[in-house]
Structures are given as C-alpha cells and as structure tokens.
Amino acid sequence: MADLTLTTFEWVPEPPRGFVRDLRVRWALEEAALPYRVVGVPGDRGPEHLAHQPFGQVPWLIDGDLSIFESGAILLHLGELSAKLMPSDPRGRSEVTKWVFAALNSVEMASLPWTMLKFMGHANDTPAWKFVDDFLKIRLKHLEPVLAKREWLAGSFCVADILMSDVLRVVDSQGGLAHSPACRDYVARATSRPAFAKAHADQLAHFAAADKARS
C-alpha cells in the first residue's frame, strides 16, 4: 500500500474547528491503524486545489496515483483497505454501503440546511426555518427507531457509523437531538471511541498550530 496523504485547509476560523470533514477521514484512518500524513492547503482555492477537489472543498486523499475527493468516497476507499472499516462479504458490504448513502443523502441533506441556518442565527419563526426544521425532524423520526434497536448501523462499527454519527454530531451541537434520545446516545457511543478522540484532538491541534504560524 502506498503512503496515504490527507489534505485539509491550513487554517480555518474558530467556529468550524472540530467539524471540518477531514475529521471523518482522520477518524477512519485511526480506527484502521493505517499510517498517513496530513498536509494543509491555503484557503484561496488555486488551480492545484481545484485539480484535486473541483468544488474547492476539503478533504481529499492521495493513495499512490489515486486522488479521491468527497468524504463518503474516501471512506468507502478506506473500507477496501481494512476489514475494521467494512466487512469483506457481499451482504455486509451492501449493508455498509446503503447506510453510507443514507447518511449523506437522506440525513445530511436535511441536517445541512438546518445547521447552516442555526450557525447564521436565522430567525426560527419564518417559513424557511419551519421548512428545514420539519424536514430534519421527519428524517430523525425515521432514524430514531432504527438506532433504538441496534448499537451500530450494519452490525459492527464501520465507515457508515463514522459518517452518520458525524452528521448527527453537528445537529447535536446545536441542540437538534433533544427529542431524539436514540440518535443522541448513538452519537455519544461513537464519539467515545478512542479513534474519534484522537482524530478530533489532532484536527484542533492542526488549526492551533496554524494560529501560531499566522501570529
């Protein structure tokens, strides 16, 4: 296996720290004990950045001659490298894959506009707020009984759990899981794992080091 290189921003302001999506990749790499290094890219989104990530976002992962963007695609790739992240049997892989897409397409589709309005301090008595709030509540209503019956989404902990718990973690940080106890407990289980703690601390340290370099 070639060296794995994870690219994220060199620096971001305080509010998104701990939530930048390179955390998902760091977490998976720590769970699988795969060796990797992290490099930073400036926030100006120049040609080299866009060559790897055409939307000017982070993260992306270099694995040999492969350059992979989008956190879901990266985690599925890492699942191919470690049985700790994805089972090898077809049925198990199918279970993981469908929950990966559910996390990104069904839940994050609803949670992202909700959290963006929260971060911006949008008034909670407008039609726009009611629409996104109701949309998220419907998704959580359907997810709640699933998580009430199982510890992890696809049997053992996997890349789908990294994605789903990280999506829900953002909602939880804004009080959005107050009426979804199974979702809240699921986030607590996932984020109590040592690999998450290491990934989270490393991301914070990465941006703290950038603060010193900028001062």
Number of helices: 8
Class per helix and strand makeup: alpha+beta
Secondary-structure element string: EHEHEEHHHHHH
Write down how many β-strands occur, each being a DSSP E stretch of 2 or more residues. Answer: 4
β-strand amount? 5-15%
Largest sheet: 4 strands, mixed
Kindly, what is the distance between the CA atoms of the first and last residues, rounded to a whole number of angstroms?
Answer: 38 Å
Order the strands across the largest sheet as they lie in space. Answer: 2-1-3-4
Range of helix content: 55-70%
What is the radius of gyration computed over CA atoms, rounded to a whole number of angstroms?
17 Å
Mean pLDDT: 96
Uncertain spans, ≥5 residues at pLDDT below 50?
none
So what's the overall shape?
globular
Oligomer: single chain
Could you characterize the architecture of this molecule?
The chain contains eight helices and four strands. The chain is an alpha+beta fold. The chain has a four-stranded mixed β-sheet with strand order 2-1-3-4, with helices on one face. Strand 1, helix 1 (22-32) and strand 2 form a beta-alpha-beta unit. Helix 1 (22-32) packs parallel to helix 3, helix 4 (90-119) packs antiparallel against helix 5 (127-148) and helix 5 (127-148) crosses helix 7. The protein is globular. The N and C termini lie far apart (38 Å). The model has no long low-confidence stretch (mean pLDDT 96).
